[in-house]
Each structure stands twice: as structure tokens, then as C-alpha cells.
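Objective 1.3, modelling of assemblies. Example input:
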Amino acid sequence: MVSSRDLNGDSGRIKPASAAVTQNGHSNCGAVAFVPLKEKIDKRIQARDPWFSLEFFPPRTEKGATNLVGRLDRMGEGGPLFIDVTWHPAGDPGGDKVTSSTKIAGTVLNYCGIDTMLHMTCSNQTKTTVKKNLEKTKRLGVRSILALRGDAVGNDWQYNDDGLNYGSDLVRLIRDEYDDYFTICVAGYPKGHPDSESYEEDLLHLKQKVDAGADMIITQLFFKAEEFLKFQNDCRDIGIECPIIPGIFPIQTNRSLVQLTKLSKLDVPDDVRSAIEPIKDNDEAIRNYGVHYATALCKELLESGQVLGLHMYTLNLETATISILKSLGLWLPAISRPLPWKTSGNPERQANEVVRPIFWGARPKSYIHRTQNWDEFPNGRWGDSASPAFGELKDYHLFYLRSRTANEKLLQQWGELTDEFDVWKVFSLFISGEKNDGGYKISETPWCDGLSKETEVMRDRLIMYNNLGILTINSQPNINAMSSTHPVFGWGGEGGYLFQKAYLEFFVKPEYAEALKKVLPKYEPRVNYHMINRDGEDFTNADRQTPNGVTWGIFPGKEIVQPTVVDPVSFIVWKDEAFGLWMEKWGALYDPTSTPYKIIESICDSYYLVNLVDNDFPKESILWDVLDDMLTTAGVKKE
Amino acid sequence: MVSSRDLNGDSGRIKPASAAVTQNGHSNCGAVAFVPLKEKIDKRIQARDPWFSLEFFPPRTEKGATNLVGRLDRMGEGGPLFIDVTWHPAGDPGGDKVTSSTKIAGTVLNYCGIDTMLHMTCSNQTKTTVKKNLEKTKRLGVRSILALRGDAVGNDWQYNDDGLNYGSDLVRLIRDEYDDYFTICVAGYPKGHPDSESYEEDLLHLKQKVDAGADMIITQLFFKAEEFLKFQNDCRDIGIECPIIPGIFPIQTNRSLVQLTKLSKLDVPDDVRSAIEPIKDNDEAIRNYGVHYATALCKELLESGQVLGLHMYTLNLETATISILKSLGLWLPAISRPLPWKTSGNPERQANEVVRPIFWGARPKSYIHRTQNWDEFPNGRWGDSASPAFGELKDYHLFYLRSRTANEKLLQQWGELTDEFDVWKVFSLFISGEKNDGGYKISETPWCDGLSKETEVMRDRLIMYNNLGILTINSQPNINAMSSTHPVFGWGGEGGYLFQKAYLEFFVKPEYAEALKKVLPKYEPRVNYHMINRDGEDFTNADRQTPNGVTWGIFPGKEIVQPTVVDPVSFIVWKDEAFGLWMEKWGALYDPTSTPYKIIESICDSYYLVNLVDNDFPKESILWDVLDDMLTTAGVKKE
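Predicted structure (C-alpha cells):
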């Protein structure tokens, strides 16, 4: 095998054309200006627009990390204002393991695109360590910190003359070192901190933390709405004026309830205790009760008029939390994306990244990962392919590369292959959603984690062409002046008009590629094409440096936004990733001496990857005609 | 009067946001890549696509310079491949007077947007002077030089051991110092140079010049096609392979014929002499004969198959040359502009400038002049208004500011004013093309040298609104997916789709401005507005930094091109220029104690300058409704 196939090629060597070198027709239109979490919350409060946030803890295993990222992707859809990740002293929270608190927070922010808060404790730690952790947090792009003292480990907490003894010390340190860079949150205890001498003393401690510079308070769990409301009133009475967000704990198992109330030294109210007692061994019944109880609590809080935000302790589980939020009407899948692709949550990246090549459309995490070290983002051109910059394929994000689905399940989906037609069938079944001969639904391919909604409108045609060996991995229909609030295609906010050029990307066998070369000249200049095989032999009728804008939007009072391009230079880089996936994700499921392995290997060795753009976006796409023409020329009859 | 009114304000202080600072969604799409003249000619020869070029000499007076620039603007329309400007040793050719050869060449290139060649001589000059001239030529953006020895002044030419004695010395110097930076042309003499001992010796001199590095040859005038064709063959025979372009001299007066033949020591053929003799005092008859003769000569050359380009000695006159070129079918008004605004011919500017504010649409020379010192061009945003960069108004290009039309003629057009309604009428008559009460047609206003073709489609409405005191100075209709080859709106080449948001810019009296403020909120967010008075009091519903893209194009295989924006920052700069023109160009025609002066002054002091954009480009423009609404609110009834 050549190196370009084991995801370790050196062809990933292009960097964005420097904005300092190439002049531009456009400024960073489409970029998302950074808004500190503190301001986001203030705006919601002013608008009396309720929101929720979600708390997760770092997993203990790599598999757990993989699962958590998937869960965060799903829970991100419901529109949390932010998520926060707890600090896990035993798990090397400032380290580089995929299970460390900082790593998880950075991943959620950068790859899942959700605003992220990171917990951080200070007790039993040197200032040097804490500063190192803060520096790392900053580097990851995380701009919000929940500053905590940290639980005493046993009884070994001791006052340290020179150190960080209280949450307020950490708040002060962050403010001194970073000014307003971070939004700082602190913890509040509606029933008083378990270590405090009294409720009143604890309120004063909280006041100290706020006076030291905290922007907001999230509370520990509580059972009754009046407990929170009294606490909030008491805070206001002593001059604490920042937002106070109730922490909501949906009871999910008897065990977690016992554990948490013990840790927080809280008494479980009689009504809860007596409701749980008879069902304590029935997890489902307890969860149902927990959802019901938490929903009622949240409703009471929201209806009080004194609460606008809810902070959900998810315990890393999604069902109960989503159910509560749906009942409350707070679970609102974002109706309008800022851009057609999934934006990163990293403020620097959000402010600077305005255009991406279409190729990574179904693999946004791979794109973010491979460009994570870029100081500046392209202004359209991906520049000179001779200079290094796209991250090497081998650097893949650890827990992204590792398939989320076990090999066994992938084998069930992608099957035992007897010839290349079986491979074609996998592609068509993936789109049709029908089960394969083994009775399994194909929910992903090496190139797509799932079907995009955009694909739906071309579903029937795509199934037919995939059955005939046109193995599509990316596509978009043409659209002409569609409303920017369209439920499927919408992005960029209200009042805009969206446009797309029709795009198709697929693998085809060499015979088809030859036929394609014959018919394509008929469609010039309307259709731009670029075809390339694994070894890099390529054919194109487009300029080899100039990107083709294929998605753009026109908005009131703004410059034209052009977020997606077909870029010839990065296509060469994508080619290695796309061909590499044949062997690394599919071929790797089989024994190298087996027939299926050889089928995949032969496809990878001989097929061409093709992209087609129909420039005539106001007219019906001509790309289907191109495919029909290719099939006819290759001697294939459509059914 | 305040300083902002005498075109000398210091408010012209904004510079383009640095491309190095702001990231961008687009590369320099729409920019014109520099093609050396040598390559342009090679391409025409390869394509067997005939062309012409035009020669001018520098005028002697400032008024002459003003007239010449107007003539060059008109002759540029016919599509010359380049124009060249002769070197006028007596006129301080390397100096800074508006009549100097370098100044004229720089103006044609930068302001008229025509590829320009500059003659340069070397005899009786030090290398230092020549190098200084070359450096200045480079600085102006001129990339083509016709290298000459220079005519001996009387008999004082002497061989200089250390100096530049021959054309070939100058060619060698340019090549040595500037490598391929300049396209170098040299002169050829179909009948031999007057100072040469023989035709053969002269051919060898020409060969030396080519061997020294010349890219092409333009010939001295001749009378018979066979003379040129023989000369070209003889050149080829001794190994001269570069393009040889015949110089065509249309006889325009007997005097110029006598003068030129004497200088070039050419014999006038008998048939010409005997044809002219009987009509030698009838200029018109001679010119007709000259046109007829030159047309026949050119036809013969082109039909020989051995000539593709014709270099026309215009003698700074346009009628004869245009007539000949029209007869030959070479006079072809450019059907497709590269961008909707008039591009500069300066290679650096062409390569970097891709977007302009719409405000200077009718005053492109002013815009080019005020931005002539910019090292980089905006990427959409015009940046921070606190930093200096737009050229001061007082620096205005000398012979542009000076009105091309004598004051007397302007007075006839803009008239003796008795009240502000007379001013309104000037605006409406300018658009309707009807004569004023004095019987004069109004061919220009201080803000517009002439009506653009785009205005035509809105003509009737504009006349009506101007009659009612909505004094329009700039406008564009909305267009939606119009062909890029449309005869009026087309730009950017074939196969594209063009779009515009409707735009209107006008002055209105304060009562109208008040009414406008009342009605505008009804039209949000569809309509963006910005209104400002002379003193800078302004109102807008748009972001104060963000430009609104109002003209864009979608082309096959390219990024989105967005060449025109309504930029809020540069509008503030434009405001000073727009208000300044009231007094400098209009008020200045009158005695400061006169009624007309006071009318203009009062308008300048009190009116608002307003711009309106209708963002909903696919729908019929709503801007007329806004105006109607304003008029109704102000208590005005439309007729």
C-alpha cells in the first residue's frame, strides 16, 4: 500500500492564502462576532427570553469520551445557551488525555460548536498549576470558568498562607491575570455550603466571591422552588446583583440521589422520600418520577417570574433532561444556523472563519481538526499546495477517528461483499434507508455519519444512480433566491435570500471516468468538473487555483456572504482523505487476504473521485443529464 | 463659510481596513491580472484578431491637457489595444506639469483606464536623468516604453563615449535595469532612417535594437502598402522576428503633411501630391482625402494577411482616425466591461482593486485620485474613519477639478436662479434632456458629467421626483439574475448572472428630511437609509461600519464578485465632496452677493444628502413608495 492510503500521506500540504498577500473583494462577512457568556445571559434576561444550560462530567474511558461527544452533538441541537464540564481532580483535569476535563471542554467548544464553561478548582493546588490550567483553557478557546474551591479530599484540606484557599481567591486570581477575558461563574448553595457554619455565613462567602469579580452564580441542587427563591432574595438583600441560575437535578436513580444528597449534606424532603421508597428498585419508574418532579419544579421557578435560566445536571444522560426541557418548551432545535456548515464554538475561529471547501461537508470535525493550527482562515483561496498547513491525516483527532460504531455493527451494515455491485448497493441502501439482505439498516458510510436533510430532495435520483455505480458521497441541489429562514436550507438569519449551485461528488469506476471525459466537453462552460484517482492523476476544466463559489447569501444591510466553495487546491488534499477512508474505515474491517478486502482495495486503487458543479443555478440542474450521458456512452441502460 | 465647503475639509480621513487585519470571505475575485503589452499583442497575432493603437503628443497648455483627457476618454471607448504618448523634450517630459509627457501618460493609464506606452529618448541626456525618468514611469504604473534615440536638435548631436548614443543603448539600459518589467518598443523606418547612410545600414541598426532587447517595432509613416510589406520582409530576412506594427498617418492638413515629410525626409508620392495640389487650401477636402487614402492603405495592409495591428498617428485629433477605424470595422466599443465601474489601467490597481463605494459612481476620476496613494485596496470595509487616507479634497487632480466647460456655458445650462425651484428644474431637465427656458440643453451637473445608460430605465420617475425637489445624483435599478452580457448592465464576461439592489441618492430640503425620518421605520428592515447634512448630523438604520453589497455577479467557476457597496464610512467622506460641489462648481459661478449665490448657499447649508437601499432585490423596488410616502407626509401632492 502506498502511504497516501494509510491516512498518513504527506499530500495534506496546503495552507490558506494569506489575507495579507491576496487582496479581497469582501470583508469577514458571515463571521460571528464573539459575545461573552455574561453578555449573552444579560441579553436573555433583558429580553425575558428563557434558556437552559447543561452540565456534564468527564468520562472515565476513551470509549466513554467517544460516546459523550456523540451525546453532546445531539444535545447541542436543542439549543443550550452553554454547556459546562466539571473538573475531575482524579482524572488529570488539565492533562492531554481524551478523558481530561480540559480536553472534553475544548472538544465540545471546537468540534460540537457549543459555548462551553469549564469548572476549575484551586484547593490543594499551587498557583503555578492553576495558572497553567488557565493558560491552557485560554488556548483552547474556552472563555467561561466556574471557579470552585474544590471538595476537601477526606479531611486533608488545610489553610495555606500563600495559596488559593477559597473560591474567591481563584476568582481574584483569574480577574487579576486575565481582566475580562473570562466570564467567571461561582457556585451558590440555597441551603448553605455543607462546610459553612451557617446559612448566613455562607451567603457572606458568596458575596465575597461576587465582590472578587464573579459574573454569575449557578446553584447546587435543591428540592423546592421556594428554597431557591428565598436564597435568591437573600442574595439580593445583601447586595448580590449578578444573575443566579438554579441548578436542576432530575432524579434518575435512587443510587445517584443518595450519593448526591450525602455529598451535599442535603435532606431529601419527605414527599420525595415517600414517593421513591415504594419504587426504589424500579429505575424506569424513578426516572419517570424524577422527570415529573423536576418539570414541576422548573415550571414553578419560571412562573415565579424571577427565574429565566435553568442549569440542568445531566449526569451525562440525555433522556430525562431532554424530556423535561421539551415539556417546558425550552428544547428548541436551532431554526436558523449562522452559516450552512456547522460552526465551531471557538470564538477566534468563529470570528475569522467565513468559508469552507464543500468537500468536508459531511465530515466537519475532520476539517476543524485538520485546520486547528491555522492562525488565519482562507479568504476563498486555499493557496499554494506546496506549503504545508492542512494537518497531517495521521494527526486525526483520537476519538473521532476511532469509529463510534463497533466493527461488528459496521460489518452488519456494510456486509460481506462478493463483488463490487455489493458495494454499490451499500451506497444506495444508505440513501434509501431500506434494510440490507441481512436485515440491517445502513446508518452511516465511511464518508457520511448520516444523511443530510438536503439530500432528501434528490433522494430518488441518488438511489438510482448509486445502484448503477455512481457512488455519491456529497451533493447539494441548486437553489435560487430561497428564503434564509427555510426550514431545511435556511441559514444566516432573517430577511435574506439564499443561492446554491448544484453540486455532485462521487466515486466511479475507470470505464465511467473515461465516458465522463468524453461527454463533459459538451457541457462547457456550464459545468465545471474535477476528477482524480488515488494516485493523483486528475482532469479538470476549471482554473487550478480559483475556487468556485457554490453557496451564497444576500442579506439586508450586509455584504454578500459566500460560505461554501469548490476549491481545486483543497480538493487534492481531500482526495487523500476520501480515498484513505476506503481502506481505513471499510477495508480494515476484513482480513487482508479475504475477498471483501480485495474488492475494497481494487475500488480504492482504480476508481476516480469526481466533483461536478452546474454554474447555471437559476435553471434546473443539468448534472443528471451529464450522468445519463456518461452512462449511455459507457453502454449502460438506465432502468 | 466653513472649511468643509471649500473642498478643503479635513474630514476626508479614512483608510481602507487592512487586508492583513480583517479576515475575508473572498479572494481578489474580479481583479484583472496584469498582462504585459507584448503578450497582449502576441495573443492577438495568434488569434489573428486585428487591433489598433493610437498615438498622441502632450499638449502645450493646461486647457489643452484638459481637452486631451476628454478626447482620450472618448477614443478609449473604441477599444484601442494601447495608446502611446510622445516624448516632448522641450516640454520637460519627465516633469510634473500637467503638460509633461509622463504626466499625460500617467493620467491616461490611471484615470482613463487605457493601457499606455510612453515614448522616451536618450540622446543628449545623462544616464542619471534617463534612469530617473524610467523610475518615474514605473511609479506611474506605465509598463511599456517606446525607446528612441531622439531627434538631433539642429546639428548638435555628438557621439558621447560614456553615454546613451543610440536607441539600442536605451533598450539595453532598460533591460539591464528592469529586466522584463517593461515592454520595449523601438521605431522602424520603412524607407530607412533619414540619418542613415543606407536602407540596409538602417535595417542593421534596427536589428541591433531588437537584439538589445526590444519586444516590438512601430514604423514611421509611409505612403504605400508595398513599402511596409517589403520592409517587414526585409526585417524577417535578417532575423528580426518580433511584431512590426505599421504607423498610419492620415493626412489631415497640407501643413502637417509638409512638416512631417520634411522632418522624416520622405518624398510624397506623385499621386498624393497631385490629388492634394488642387484642394490644398480646403482643409475639409484634404481631410476627406486623407481618410479615404489611409483607409485604402490600411485595407490593403490587413488584406495582405501580413498585418494585424495598425498604429494611428492621431495628431491629437479624433474625427479622421475614428472615421478610418470605423470603416475598417476596428472601432468596437467594448461590449463587456470587466467590472461595473470604470477600471483604472494601472496594473497594480487593476490587480488589487475589486470593490468601490457606489457614491463616486459618476465621478470615478475623483475616486481614483483620492485613493491614488493607497498601497492596498479595501476588502469591503473602508475601516476606521479616524485614520487618514482618503486624499484631501484640496489635492484634487488639477485638470480634473477645473471644469471642462467654461463658466459661461455652465451659466447657460444652470441658469440665472430666482428661487430654489429653479434649482430643482435644473436637475429634472438634466435627466429629461429637454432644453431650459434659455434654450440650452443641460449636459452635466456638478455631480454628474453625463447621464448613465442605467438611469434611462428610471427616467420618467426620476424627472417627476426631481421636479418635486428630490434632487437625485445617483441611482441604480434592482436587477435579478440578468445576463452578464446585457448591453447596458453587462460586465464581467460571458456566462454570468448579475444582481443589483435598488439604490437612490438625493438631496432634499429639511422638511422632506423630517418627513422621511417619520416614514422610514415602516420600511425596515427592507430599506436601509443613511441621511446626513453638510455639518455631519446623520441618521441611519444600518450598522455604521458594515457595507451593504449592492452589485454582485455570479460567474462560472469563480467566486462571487461584489464590486459595489454602500459603505457607511466612506459615505461620510463623500458627503464633504458632494456638499462641496454645490459651492465650488455651482455657487462659484455667481457673485457672492447675488441672489443665485445665496440660493445655492442656502441649499448647501440646509439640505440633507440621503441614500436608500432596497434590500429585497427580487421584488419590484419599494423606494418609489418610500418617496411617495415622504411627499404625502410632507403635505405634497404628486401630479
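Chain B is about 40% helix and 15% strand.
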